[in-house]
Amino acid sequence: MTHILDQIVANKRNEIQQLKQSITCSDYVQSPLFNRTVISLRKKILDQFGIVAEIKRKSPGAGEIRPDLNLVSQLEIYEQQGASGISVLTDHRYFGGSIEDLKQIRTRTNLPILRKEFIVDEYQLFESKASGADSVLLIASILEKEQAHQLTIVAKSLGLEVLFEIHSFEELNKLNDEIDILLINNRNLKTQETQVEHSFELASYLPEHLVKISASGITSSDQLDQLQNLGFNGALIGESLLKGNFRFGLTSNSFVL
Q1: CB of 232 closer than 8 Å to CB of 203
Q2: Residue 187 in 3-state DSSP?
Q3: What is the pLDDT of residues 224-250, one digit of tens each?
Q4: Residue 27 β-bridge partners
Q5: Which of 36, 113, 148, 207 has CA 20 to 30 A from 181's CA?
Q6: Interatomic CA distance for residues 44 and 69, integer angstroms
Q7: Is the distance from CB of 16 to CB of 125 less than 8 angstroms?
């Protein structure tokens, strides 16, 4: 049975092959942004319980979220609320984003930017650095352990921080010592089922030394308080912020609506 995740990855591989015909890694190295010093998302998250606020227009699970999204206005809202970083979904077919979104946001903020993408090729890491990303997401469910490790090494050699996403307990076996942040996705990417309690259940099994954040399904300050009490250092929030169902503010490490 083919899941939506399989379709996304297959489409991504086709996109990469097409891009390689017109732009090389050497071209990316010559980009004005390629040699910029990245801003550490890890450090920002450790300064306080960090909220990584997401930019996306739609998703396979939620459908249309904000098709009319104004990048500049949304960025200003996130900055005013005290976001520690900005996550930019750059997949176009399934999430309505683009690498141009990331480039535009880079010109407008000094916050660290996470490129959230289905990364399966080193080529995408060069593209990310050349477009102004500070960190990239690697997803355990679409990568073999050695492939994830190799991509981590290349990303770090380019100066990028690495967020490593897992959903299941079994995927902890794919961790490596070079990652900067462990992200627990409460959404099953194959079924699109989402339960924030998933992070609560996994919390006691996660390595204590790692910086940890939870993502997907977070809709209240009570959930953020629970995550913090369980040892999480932050959270990535998109849909509930973009739909206006949830706003956050940070006051003395407590959350207010």
Answers
A1: yes
A2: strand
A3: 999 999 999 999 998 889 987 666 765
A4: none
A5: 36
A6: 26
A7: no
